[in-house]
Amino acid sequence: MHSPDILGSGLVAPRLFRLDEYHRLIDVGVLGEDERVELLEGVIVEMAPQGRAHALVVSRLNRFLTGVLGDAYSVRPQLPLSLAGDSEPEPDLAIVTRQEEESAPVHPRSALLVVEVADESLRRDRLLKGRIYARAQVSEYWVVDVAGRAVEVYSEPDPDTGRYRTMRTLGVGETLSSSSLPGLALPVAELFA
């Protein structure tokens, strides 16, 4: 039996999930809590396995951010953010206020800084996740390009267009800092040492 041709091109539109439906799938055991999936614009997406270089960069950034930020903030490594009705990404790192983390009904609904470490996921992180984070008004978004040994820093989100107004790329000879979290300064080369 064939599925109905909803889109008129031989393709059937996928079933999109709302955030509450996604949580119910987890609650009833359809999706295991340890499954490597995330909800992106209503679609349940499998997350790519992490290679050694990816894991090292996440570990280095986690150690650095935890050491610098203190108790007012929480560094959330690979934990969910419940954003805007149909997305619950699990970024490599998210910086949220301690208050946001402790008062959130499920997971934090905003972040000051989100970091995605990208190798095979570079295109998805730039476009799809960038759009999700801009719409959620995450004030700063870093994409660490492992193969390119660079960090793309996105700021000034425009929630209406789902884009960041400003983007700059920092290479290994430059220092990474944050407009959202003053006082951070990390030589980019240390991420790839």
Query: How much strand?
Result: 25-35%
Return Rg in Å.
17 Å
CATH superfamily: tt1808, chain A
CATH architecture: Alpha-Beta Complex
Mean pLDDT: 90
Fold blueprint:
Elements: H1 19-27, E1 37-40, E2 43-46, H2 52-69, E3 73-77, E4 93-97, H3 98-103, E5 113-118, H4 122-135, E6 140-145, E7 150-158, E8 163-170, E9 175-177, E10 185-187
Explain what the structure shows.
The chain has 193 residues and is of the alpha+beta class. It has one domain: tt1808, chain A, CATH 3.90.1570. Helix content is 24%, strand content 27%. The chain is built from 4 helices and 10 strands; from the N terminus they run αββαββαβαβββββ. A 6-stranded mixed beta sheet has the order 3-4-5-6-7-8. The radius of gyration is 17 Å and the shape is globular. It starts with 18 loop residues before the first helix and ends in a 6-residue tail after the last strand. The model has no long low-confidence stretch (mean pLDDT 90).
Sum up the structure in keywords.
about 190 residues; alpha+beta; tt1808, chain A; six-stranded mixed β-sheet; two-stranded antiparallel ribbon
Summarize the structure.
This protein has 193 residues and is an alpha+beta fold. The chain has helices at residues 19-27, 52-69, 98-103, 122-135; strands spanning 37-40, 43-46, 73-77, 93-97, 113-118, 140-145, 150-158, 163-170, 175-177, 185-187.
